[in-house]
Request: fold
Amino acid sequence: MEVSLRRDNAPRICQKAALGKHLCRPKGYNLVTIIVGRENFLYSSTTPRFISLLTKNTVALILAGGRGSRLRALTDWRAKPAVPFGGKFRIIDFPLSNCVNSGIRRIGVITQYKAHSLLQHLHRGWSFLRSEFNEFVELLPAQQRIQEAWYKGTADAVFQNLDIIRGYKSEYVLILAGDHIYKQDYGEMLAFHSAHAADMTVACMEVSVEEASAFGVMTVDEHQRVVKFTEKPEVPDEIPGKPGRAMVSMGIYVFNTAFLFEQLIRDADDPHSSHDFGKDIIPYLVTRYRVFAHPFEDSCVGLQNGGPYWRDVGTIDAYWEANMEMTKITPYLNLYDREWPIWTYQEQLPPAKFVFDDDARRGYAVDSLVSGGCIISGASVRRSLLFSNVYVHSYAEIEDSVILPDVDIGRYAILKKVVLDKGCSIPEGMSIGVDPAEDAKRFYVTERGVTLVTPEMLGQQVHYVR
Reply:
């Protein structure tokens, strides 16, 4: 089946691919003619979001095996993608929801490090897809299928599941990181990939040169083709005409399936490779094949005045700040968007409850998010985010804090700029976030003054063997 995308006075771009009758507009195309066989279909910018053969012929693989060591003790008992976020979600819910909302309903989740919490969440919240319609969220744990070794890198994690992925018989493979917060229509990126006859497409975004050193930096030509890729350079290349700005990889890749298999096998046979997409695969491909950069702003959902929303919550400071953003009057990330909902497992809990209304003992929350099952009993909560089943006793004060599920906060306790892990029980009268020097003796205090508290730091055993 030959497919073409064309416009008046524009070059004809052809490739053999099974596209549907509705296609997102590639960049630079206002009206696009989709030619499938002998039939022509006209696309305009007013066409609503679609579910096409392009997304139906795609399998998504979410890399969710990382520890996220920069999150310190927050990932001592869970993988980074399983870390709670936004009051009721897990981080992995965002790429999963993007897949489902984009029309991609064949998803593999590749796990390794301390995956129990993640697997439990996926089982409870992501079992609604119907296998009868060839829809699934399939778990791909590290199991030494091909060799007696655990996953050695991101590319190796995919390679070790190659026999399973072959069975999906997809035209495209979408590879995603499972630890970022954002909304993206992957259908737009797939349309870009197809329109440019790319072998590989990398989602990218603009950041400051100072931030770019933490990412893979790309240099592109006028057609968005990648001509240079450098992983975490000390001196990143600037975008021509935009001093102080650089283009970085988001860790989101589209491959033609057969091409991906070929490159993974080649990389696996290379004894000098670290088997990582950013360090090995992309640098090798850039000078030899058609690798293109897809601007995130072209497929970002809910673009705000401040630019496209994407957060790497890889440090305690970044995690705290991204959660605090949710308490603003108009947050950058819209969780109330019914057109692009974020799906998750939702425990059946009673509504949040606020009790006592005396002058010295009033239960209230201001500029805060309070989830189901919480009881604010004669305590004050300001600019904070409370996950489910948090009990705040009388006279306690909580400010600028992120409180994870199943927490008990005693009377007269004071918490300021704190990240409180699941299962903590704060004793009566304890103050955290008031004296950083004293806090640092028991807890972890960041450079920006955020205090991380876990049950183990409080001498409480939630996870134990003996």
